[in-house]
Write a structure and sequence with these properties.
Helices cover about 90% and strands about 0% of the residues. It is an all-alpha fold and about 180 residues long. The protein has one domain. The protein is globular and about 55 Å long. The two termini are about 25 Å apart.
Length: about 180
C-alpha cells in the first residue's frame, strides 16, 4: 500500500468514526481542564489509584497463585505488587516521585510516537497538529527530566493536563479537516 493510499484510508476512517473521535477529543479536553484546576488533587489521585490497583491485584494474584500451587516466582511477583501498592497507599509522596519518573519516560516515548504518526500522515490535512502535539509532549518530558524532583509532583498534573488538552485538540482538528 502506498503512502497516499494509507493517508486516504486514514482520512476515510476519521470520517466514518467522526462522532467517536469528537467525543474522545472532548473528554480529553475536559479532563485536561480539570487537571489544571486541581493540580495537587490530580497528582495525588493518580498516585493513589495506581497504589490501590497494585495492592488489590497483588492480593488477587497471591490468592490465585497459592490456590493453584503456581511457581514460586508468581508468589514473589504478587508480594512485590502488594508491597509496592501498600507503600504507595501509605506513603503517597514517595509513590509520586516514582510516578513522575515513569511519566517522564512515558512522555518521551509518546512524544516520539506522535512525531512518527505526524510524519506518516503528512501532508494530510492538519497533520501539523499531531506534529505540534508530539513536539510539546517531548518538551514537557524534557522539563520533567530537568526539574525532577523539585517541582515534579505538582508538575505531574500540569503535564497530564497539557497532554490531554493537546491530544484532544489534535483529534478534533484531524476529524474536522477530514470530514470537510
Amino acid at each position: 500500500m502506498t503512502v497516499e493510499a494509507l493517508r486516504g484510508h486514514f482520512e476515510q476512517r476519521l470520517r466514518e468514526h467522526k462522532g467517536k473521535y469528537i467525543f474522545q477529543g472532548t473528554v480529553f479536553i475536559i479532563l485536561g481542564i480539570l487537571a489544571v484546576a486541581l493540580p495537587a488533587t490530580t497528582a495525588l489521585t493518580v498516585e493513589l489509584m495506581i497504589g490501590v490497583v497494585l495492592l488489590l491485584s497483588g492480593i488477587f494474584q497471591l490468592v490465585l497463585t497459592l490456590k493453584s500451587k503456581m511457581h514460586w516466582w508468581s508468589v514473589l511477583s504478587a508480594l512485590l505488587s502488594i508491597t509496592v501498592g501498600a507503600i504507595m497507599v501509605w506513603k503517597p509522596f514517595a509513590g509520586l516521585l516514582v510516578i513522575v519518573t515513569l511519566l517522564a519516560i512515558f512522555m518521551t516515548i509518546e512524544g516520539v510516537f506522535e512525531l512518527l504518526l505526524a510524519w506518516q500522515i503528512r501532508p494530510g490535512r492538519n497533520w501539523s497538529w499531531m506534529l505540534f502535539s508530539g513536539i510539546v509532549t517531548l518538551v514537557l518530558a524534557v522539563m520533567l527530566w530537568i526539574g525532577f524532583p523539585a517541582f515534579g509532583v505538582l508538575y505531574l498534573s500540569l503535564v497530564i493536563a497539557v497532554n490531554f488538552i493537546l491530544y484532544g485538540l489534535s483529534l478534533m482538528m484531524l476529524v474536522w479537516r477530514a470530514a470537510a
